[in-house]
């Protein structure tokens, strides 16, 4: 008898069954907490970088205002401007290193949560794991620095190349004039890097790409619907200090949930493409569900293959 191949719906249902709903709310709350904890040192690190750049802080502020909702940028921008005004260029290296270490707690938490969603074991060396999170935090600051250079000096650099070397790249000029496209591409690269390198797995990049695309869609929906949500929620007064804090918390919470959902989408796509259907059936069978998820599953499987032989010998002796 030839086994029938599962349909797309059957395989999809089994993939959902072996990946039950995760605690996305808890993950979002944990990440929001660490971001609030790290926002001050992270802003201090960004201020240290901005202090050595050859342009005014007003240009940086305009980029941040475009990237965040007005209710959130009203809280972040004054803190950043205060740090920029009080930052010393001589203390750049030390200030950057010290401020990035507590800020790396965010990516350390992201790494732990993604390992849970990806069903991966944590990295054995805690120092390597923390260093990995620190590198990602440093990469984020470098990304912000690079984007700022592109937004501010992109057209100037392009005009210099054209006038000096006669190099004309028309499509680059069109891209530079569309800062939203550059921001979108940079966000995709960031999310792809998080999903590809943060979890302790060695998967094909296509799965991280799917997660990054889902995350981009989620971020876009939140940016469009966040103002609508606040307009309908009359209990939040965005003009008071507590109201502003609540607005920032809500905005962070939903964005962190999007990061978790993007990771979950990557796992679903991976299991749909890679996992054996019969293995998923065995894992989701009620009788064997516990054994399939138990660390002693191999022992259980070996006992199942030996048990019929014992029964057969006992039956023969009784019949004899």
Labels describing this entry:
disordered C terminus, transmembrane helix, membrane, cell membrane, about 325 residues, about 0% strand, globular, mainly alpha, 14 helices, single chain
What is the N-to-C succession of helices and strands?
HHHHHHHHHHHHHH
Helix content: over 70%
| Strand residue content | under 5%
Question: What is the number of beta strands?
Answer: 0
Query: Which radius of gyration do the C-alpha atoms yield?
Result: 26 Å
Largest sheet: none
Q: Label the overall shape.
A: globular
Low-confidence stretches: 306-320
Q: Can you tell me the number of structural domains? A: 1
Q: N- to C-terminal separation?
A: 35 Å
Helix run count: 14
Helix-strand makeup class: mainly alpha
Organism: Globicatella sulfidifaciens
Membrane topology: Multi-pass membrane protein
Protein name: YihY/virulence factor BrkB family protein
Keywords: Cell membrane, Membrane, Transmembrane, Transmembrane helix
Give a short summary of the structure.
The protein has 320 residues and is mostly helical. It has helices spanning 8-18, 24-50, 57-67, 70-86, 92-103, 105-117, 126-165, 170-177, 179-197, 205-232, 241-274, 277-284, 289-293, 297-319.
């Amino acid at each position: 008898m030839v086994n029938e191949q599962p349909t797309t719906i059957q395989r999809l249902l089994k993939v959902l069954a072996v990946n039950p709903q995760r605690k996305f709310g808890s993950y979002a709350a944990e990440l929001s907490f660490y971001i609030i904890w790290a926002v001050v040192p992270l802003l201090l690190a960004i201020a240290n970088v901005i202090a050595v750049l050859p342009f005014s802080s007003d240009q940086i502020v305009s980029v941040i205002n475009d990237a965040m909702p007005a209710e959130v940028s009203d809280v972040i921008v004054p803190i950043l401007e205060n740090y920029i005004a009080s930052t010393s260029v001589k203390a750049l290296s030390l200030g950057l290193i010290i401020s990035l270490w507590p800020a790396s707690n965010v990516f350390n938490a992201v790494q732990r949560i993604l390992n849970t969603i990806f069903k991966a074991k944590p990295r054995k060396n805690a120092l390597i794991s923390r260093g990995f999170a620190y590198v990602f935090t440093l990469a984020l600051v470098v990304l912000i620095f690079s984007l700022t250079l592109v937004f501010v000096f992109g057209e100037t650099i392009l005009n210099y190349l054209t006038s000096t070397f006669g190099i004309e790249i028309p499509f680059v000029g069109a891209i530079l004039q569309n800062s939203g496209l550059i921001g979108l591409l940079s966000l995709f690269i960031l999310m792809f890097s998080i999903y590809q390198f943060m979890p302790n797995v060695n998967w094909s990049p296509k799965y991280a790409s799917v997660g990054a695309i889902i995350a981009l869609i989620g971020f876009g929906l939140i940016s469009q619907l966040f103002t609508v949500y606040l307009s309908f929620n009359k209990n939040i007064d965005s003009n008071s200090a507590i109201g502003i804090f609540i607005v920032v918390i809500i905005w962070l919470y939903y964005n962190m949930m999007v990061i978790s959902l993007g990771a979950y989408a990557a796992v679903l796509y991976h299991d749909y493409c890679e996992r054996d259907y019969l293995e998923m059936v065995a894992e989701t069978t009620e009788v064997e569900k516990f054994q399939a998820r138990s660390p002693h599953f191999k022992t259980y499987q070996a006992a199942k293959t030996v048990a019929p032989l014992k029964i057969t010998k006992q039956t023969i002796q009784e019949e004899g």
